[in-house]
């Protein structure tokens, strides 16, 4: 066997090993990031519950699964919502959404859309946006949405 064939085989073997190690590294990094996000979310939820209780809200339940319905081409489609918390105060019920960092602003489009979805799915509930990192909360409403339904 010529010497170059051995070098090509070794090169291909090293290339395949490098690809395999690269895929393993990317998978490890993705899982690590996911665990870090999950830990931050859990800390945010714990702190968010404290913020609500300190403000006089009673936490009815957390991580509530709910079903919502959207109509597509005349057919109802059901999908699942995961609510951070249902709380009550002074005879009213609220859907509370916990956020941290920049996402804890009504100016953040994904947060605003999520709260709008909750407003449509739970028209008899108020909405609370809890900034778990700053320890603040805001009651959010969509008055023009109400005007359209009248």
Provide a short characterization of the protein structure.
The chain has about 150 residues and is of the alpha+beta class. It has helices at about 5-55, 110-120, 145-150; strands at about 60-70, 75-90, 90-100, 125-130, 135-140.
Structural features, described:
With 150 residues, the chain is of the alpha+beta class. It has one domain: Lambda Exonuclease, Chain A, CATH 3.90.320.10. It contains three helices and five strands, in the order H-E-E-E-H-E-E-H. The chain has a five-stranded mixed beta sheet, sandwiched between helices. The radius of gyration is 24 Å and the shape is elongated. The chain starts with a helix and ends with a helix. 15% of the residues are buried. The model has no long low-confidence stretch (mean pLDDT 85).
Which shape, going by the Cα principal axes? elongated
Total domains? 1
CATH topology (level 3) name: Lambda Exonuclease, Chain A
Largest beta sheet, briefly?
5 strands, mixed
Indicate the radius of gyration in whole angstroms. 24 Å
Helix content: 40-55%
- The CATH architecture category equals Alpha-Beta Complex
Give the overall average pLDDT: 85
User: Are there runs of 5+ residues with pLDDT below 50, and where?
Assistant: none
What's the β-strand tally?
A: 5
Please report the first level of CATH classification, the CATH class: Alpha Beta
- The proportion of residues in beta strands is 25-35%
Counting helices, strands and paired strands, the structural category is alpha+beta
Helix and strand element order: HEEEHEEH
**Sequence of strands across the biggest β-sheet:** 1-2-3-4-5
